[in-house]
């Protein structure tokens, strides 16, 4: 992988399974319905009936024709040859279907987006009894090689804060971290952090009549990301356990 090798190693990208968007698009409809809607790729048919393109939802990424490849701990698009390649791809498809089917047991969904405007890390966390799935999309400057892929892994709640903290380092410029969640009986929430000059700040929202102002000058500390994730996970997993899978 040529793009930002040091940051990629720090973020532990090699521990994720890289899957091309077209493979996700070709999941059976019953499994596609379980995928996080904001990360579900959509297929765009070209004028030629035999050709199609798969693009990430809202990604603005270039279209990619054909099935592409999916690999474990390998660079997207890396050439595969020989008879073993087809067997490996069949194994990946079977694994992907199993991964997607387990989303049926999810009771809590959390979305984390870290964006500078030119770089974006989008992580969907799907959690439930005995289920911890993470789906990651990387887009923008320095992350072009991942534009037509998503990265998947199973994850334990205790590791989430550390993983998100590492992934945020893939965004090199000043950025905003947006965390939204849904669980339980319709419970939802939205949280923000902002990073300026390498320091995280917690926005303070103030209301004065009909107007709302945001002050982002309150330093949140070096552990701001982990602290925020820990608080949200405690709240959501408790509510999600009471409700059960959704």
User: What order do the SSEs take from the amino end to the carboxyl end, as H and E?
Assistant: HEHHEEEEHEEEEHEEEEEH
Helix count equals 6
User: Which spans have pLDDT < 50 for at least 5 consecutive residues?
Assistant: 45-83
Assign an overall shape.
Answer: globular
Quaternary state, please?
single chain
Largest sheet: 9 strands, antiparallel
Please estimate the helix content.
25-40%
Strand order of the largest sheet: 5-1-9-8-7-6-10-11-12
Number of E-type strands: 14
Class of secondary structure makeup: alpha+beta
Let me know the average pLDDT: 79
Distance between the termini: 37 Å
The portion of residues forming beta strands comes to 25-35%
> How many whole angstroms does the radius of gyration measure?
19 Å
Explain what you see.
The protein has 246 residues and is α+β, with helices and mostly antiparallel strands. It is built from 6 helices and 14 strands. It has helices spanning 5-10, 21-25, 29-32, 83-101, 157-168, 224-243; strands at residues 17-20, 42-45, 52-55, 64-65, 71-72, 108-115, 119-128, 131-140, 149-154, 175-183, 187-196, 199-201, 204-208, 211-215. The strands form 3 sheets. It has a 9-stranded antiparallel sheet with strand order 5-1-9-8-7-6-10-11-12, sandwiched between helices. Strand 11 and strand 12 (199-201) form a beta hairpin. Helix 5 (157-168) packs antiparallel against helix 6 (224-243).
């Amino acid at each position: 992988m040529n793009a930002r090798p040091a940051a990629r190693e720090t973020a532990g990208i090699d521990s994720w399974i890289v899957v091309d968007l077209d493979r996700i698009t070709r999941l059976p409809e019953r499994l596609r319905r379980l995928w996080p809607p904001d990360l579900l790729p959509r297929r765009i048919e070209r004028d030629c009936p035999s050709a199609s393109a798969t693009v990430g939802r809202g990604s603005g990424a270039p279209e990619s024709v054909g099935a592409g490849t999916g690999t474990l701990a390998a660079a997207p698009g890396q050439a595969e040859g020989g008879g073993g390649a087809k067997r490996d791809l069949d194994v990946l498809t079977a694994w992907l279907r199993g991964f997607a089917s387990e989303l049926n047991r999810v009771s809590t969904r959390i979305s984390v987006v870290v964006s500078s405007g030119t770089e974006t890390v989008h992580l969907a966390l799907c959690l439930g009894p005995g289920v911890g799935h993470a789906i990651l999309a990387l887009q923008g400057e320095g992350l072009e090689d991942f534009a037509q892929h998503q990265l998947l892994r199973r994850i334990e709640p205790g590791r989430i804060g550390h993983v998100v903290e590492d992934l945020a380092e893939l965004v090199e410029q000043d950025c905003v971290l947006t965390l939204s969640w849904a669980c339980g009986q319709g419970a939802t929430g939205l949280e923000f952090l902002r990073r300026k000059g390498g320091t995280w700040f917690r926005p303070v929202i103030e209301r004065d009549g009909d107007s709302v102002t945001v002050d982002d000058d309150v330093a949140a500390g070096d552990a701001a990301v982990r602290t925020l994730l820990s608080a949200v996970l405690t709240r959501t997993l408790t509510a999600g356990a009471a409700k059960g899978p959704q």
